User: Fold Cytochrome P450 from Streptomyces alboflavus.
Amino acid sequence: MERQQHAKLDELMRDPYPLYARARRAEGLTYVPELQAWLVARDADVREVLRRPDVFSSANAVRPDTVPAPAALAVLSQGQDPSGGPRRRVVVTADGPAHQRLRAPLVRGLSPARVAAVLPYVTERATALVDALAAAGPGARGGPRVDVMEAYALRLPGQVIGRVLGFAPEDVPVVVRGGHSSEQLLFRPLPEDEQIAAAHDTVALRRLLEGYVQDRHAAPRDDLCSEMVTSLVPDDGEPDEADPEADDTGPALTLGQRAELVAHLHNFLLAGHLTTTALIGTTLLHLLRHPAQWKLVCEEPERIPAAIEEAARYDTALQGFRRVTTRAVTLAGTELPAGAEVLVGFGSAGRDAGRYERPDVFDITRTPVARHVAFGLGAHGCPGAQLAREQLRVTLELFTRRFPGLRLAADGPPVRMRPTLIHRAPEALYVQW
Assistant:
């Protein structure tokens, strides 16, 4: 029975769009047992939820799809706050003033000026990855295939977010590996040995982040890690007697403070590079599935911004976040009691015929492009949306110029989407040129 449930959930997450279509046609909201939540599928209803954070709380915005095995949990306990403190609230699970406080350093650190300042680095790293791709890849039609997810999409966003945070380049592989392992551990059923390996990667990431937290607390720099640490040190009372590392920079962080700051950084990393990795993968996938549109964007690169927005609308990386009602409320004619869980379907909203013409058609030439909710809306709108868009813009400019003959590999395996509503992307994307 449990295996059947996993298989059904796996199928739903690999292709949720049939469910979305049924839910948009239905009266009211649709309860989805596999997700244990009411699905908010229509664009107007999604926007209503996002604009009413006082009624639809983010306290349970992200809930794991799986529970790690005891052996994996034992490994994870090595990287947790030894004081046994409460579950750490992070920006995506906070509301009201607490959310504003947690979000503020991200908004400052990802401001238009900060994004503009990091763009030369984005271009430099993207160019280096494309050079390596060209050197190792097919090079001619009919040559061997290459997985562009592994060779490019899984690499660039991690390098960029590491730069924004101020991490040393040699630490970025630990960050990227730990981020992906953390996500897989919580959102994808894995064999126990793979769970244990993922747990070790997660612990290694937490320990790395704790080192950065302590370093930036003692000696802040001009980077986002320092911005977060200096802005978000929680008022945790007196320093721990067991950890009295105080010096002329002030009292040392307590164990609880360190754990909370590590949680903030960990959460930001998952959102900061995994979403962009996914968006690069899905954008390339849909452009290559429509060769005429790939040819058009190669010939008319001024269409790249529209291609980015169409890809985000058509198949957004983040399919949805959960919300929980703070009081009884009626939404789309459905009466919800206090404490009801809803899944806000960003991916479904992008396919709503009430807002978009021919919503199930991928078309980079559609005009006018109605504003989508792929990056959220309102108080919880993604503060890193512009950085993600810029990385995708640089990617498409380079790929269309260097690989105008890019196509899906003829002898490659069928494209399979990852079985998750968090960071939806191809598991692998084999291409040739």
